[in-house]
């Protein structure tokens, strides 16, 4: 997964500027991002503080690791079932 150029703190600061009345087009031009990126950030980080955003990222990483573990265990289980199910 591609790492963002902006930290959660920077993203939240940009969103607070947008909420404060700054035009989204001006903010996107100033920071070198598209307006759609700001709207996507607003959907994901809208209303969050910096510590809450960091916690969200930690939970997403943990969820990704757990899903990977489940996938690996499922593959191992299927391999064992097929190996034990065959008649010699």
Helix content: over 70%
Terminal residue distance: 44 Å
Radius of gyration: 21 Å
Please outline the major beta sheet.
Answer: none
Number of domains: 1
Keywords: Coiled coil
Pfam family, one: HTH_Tnp_1
Organism: Engelhardtia mirabilis
Protein name: Transposase
Question: What secondary-structure arrangement, pairings included, does this model have?
Answer:
Layout: H1 8-19, H2 24-31, H3 35-45, H4 50-85
3D architecture notes:
- One of its GO terms (biological process) is DNA transposition.
- The structure is a single chain.
- The protein is mostly helical and 88 residues long.
- It has one domain (8-86).
- The model has no long low-confidence stretch (mean pLDDT 91).
- The chain has four helices and no strands.
Attribute tags:
elongated, about 90 residues, mainly alpha, single chain, DNA binding, Transposase_8_domain, coiled coil, Homeodomain-like_sf
Give a quick summary of the entry:
By secondary structure, this protein is mostly helical.
């Amino acid at each position: 997964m591609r790492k963002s150029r902006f930290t959660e703190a920077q993203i939240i600061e940009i969103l607070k500027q947008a909420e404060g009345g700054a035009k989204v087009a001006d903010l996107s031009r100033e920071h070198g991002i598209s307006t759609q990126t700001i709207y996507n950030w607003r959907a994901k980080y809208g209303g969050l503080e910096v510590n809450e955003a960091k916690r969200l990222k930690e939970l997403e990483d943990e969820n990704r690791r757990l899903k990977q573990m489940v996938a690996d265990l499922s593959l191992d289980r299927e391999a064992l079932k097929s190996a034990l199910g065959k008649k010699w």
